[in-house]
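subagent[fold] <- orchestrator: predict structure for attached chain, return tokens only, no commentary.
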Amino acid sequence: MPPSRPTVRCCRAVQQQLQASPDNVWITDGLLASAFERYCHVSRLTRRKSSSVPGPLENRRRLGKRRMAEMHMDGHSTLPPWAIEFPVDLSQWKWQPPTLRTSKDQRDDLQSRQSQSLLSRVYRWSVSEQQMKEEEVDRNGIENAPASTFDDRLSQARAAVAASTRNAIDSGYYDFIEGLQKELKLGALDPRAVDLAVSKFPESLTGTSADGETVSTAIELFLSAVVNGIASSKVLGPSEFDASFWNLVLNRTSQLRANDATILLFQTTLDAVPRPYLNDVHEGIIAAVQTLAVSQSTGRRRAADIGVALRELSSNNHGALLEGIELAVYQGSAVFEEEARQKLHFLWLQVLAHMPRVDSVYLFDACVRSKYFDRELPWHDDRDLSQLVLQQWTSRGYLGDYEAVTAFWDRESSRHASSSLAALVAGICEIEHDKPKHLRREHVWLIKNLMKLLSRFGRQDQLVVSMQRFAETRDSIPVMPFMRVASASHDYKTALKLRSILLSHEKKLESRIESRWHWTAWVPYIKSMIRDKSVTSRDIWWAVHCGDGKLKRYEAKRHELWIRRKALMEDMTMWFASSTNRSERSTFRDMSRCISWLRNNKVPLSNRSMAAIAKVATRELKRGEFGRTQRLLWLLDVIGQSKGPEQRALVARVLQRWRHANSELERKRCREAERVPDAERIRAAIMAPERSKW
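subagent[fold] -> orchestrator:
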């Protein structure tokens, strides 16, 4: 069947989109035109070449140029707003029976009525303008209302508080608070009157006969209404009040009894304070934080709530303010006993940990200044330290699934407080390892952060001890946390200690060490391990070949890994040759193992490898000895395979002359030794020279 023409498809589309009800029997031309344009925009017709004639399919660039030309050529001024004919809403049109044909007089009357409707439109517009002006005048009248009206309402509110009981505040005071917040939101009050009310009204409530708790609640409601009204106002916003006003509000907040409502008021106030004012309201912030921190009546989340309120403060821009708060908290805690004072010191550290703009360096310095972790506690401080670090990681957004990590750490550390540091490391490793590969985060740098904090207290080995305790108390041991700690330490001794911990609990491991801890992770430690006499060759070669079978499965990385292994073997040849604290026999055996790997993998020996071989094989000759025949033959064999028989013969002649020269020197030393007097006679002469024949 041949394809239909575009016009036919257009008509069909219009018929499908227009579902006329039985009442609406007429379809206007405008409705048809809009339907056609809508169809042209959504159908496949727009994909073909646009039309060059005016209409719905006209090219857009041509349409824009044509309209710009028409606007340029049109010299008529635009009509006033009241003269513009607004489009008629035809969706509500209903059919009516046709009327008789009107006469000429009736048509004239219709035109006159239309002109009158235009005039009425203009009249309505002018009336609305007049009403707007009257409303503006009324509003200005409200704004410029005499201060005595506001003072009267303050007096009435004070009387309502005085008439309140201990269990309930008079309802008139709540009406005053609601009206005050609305007026501040509308900007109907003078800022000077509000400032005066904040400075005078709370003191006037204190002088009433009402209960102290009732007065504190009334003041808190008043300050909350002031802060919320100003914060929500688009007319009289927070920037319309100076820094002294906000400092006064914070000082009034510090005079209240600390509870959840007071902390919420403190948070709302700091959120409303403009950022440029933060350095000018030090006094109020310090006083409020001191009151909230030292109080014993607030909930368990006191540190988190204060930290959230201070979240805009940074250690770089507000260092003086943070130091002032710390000094005030420590001074306020001096009146308590030792245990309570230490808890308040730790609370301030928790506040810093909950502030996202305070970096780790400042937090670690604060820990050192507080001396909280200098106490001799067996395991309690480990839990506090790991909790502090976890809170800072969470506040700064370092953890992807912080809720799961926190739950894992809390569960493990509550069972055994001595393994809380290890539980923190295991939590961030295990939770992230369970995620898909493209969503995992490497947390080695977080463990570095933790180890840096431990080093500030001189407890570098505390994490390793916690890992050992973690392995002893767990029924199943994951390998990943131990590997991450070893990688973060950059110390081969720590890595070997963690490896020995895993090997001592090998039956409880969730997986084999080789499947997780590949030799590529040990490459940075090999040189230091070779130079350390206490590290055996067995441990070195275990690290070199750890996880070989696992890595051979990766076809894409096999060539890259082979290149890295080749470079490692060449470097190990040099490291073994230059090692002076290992025995010659062990050095020769380890270096020959490296050379055997290179020869078996058909890697040509470089000049530096040949020099290392010659250095080890000729050590006895350099000392003037005859030399080891087997080592020299092995050297000649390697040279013959690498450089050819001619080079081998040349080196053999040189070695032969060297050995002959050493033999001549040895015989000469022996002949000279025969001329030396007997050793016993020499000692006797030294001990008793008067009885000596010499």
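orchestrator: received. Logging for downstream: The longest helix spans residues 104-143. Residues 73 and 612 are 92 Å apart (CA to CA).
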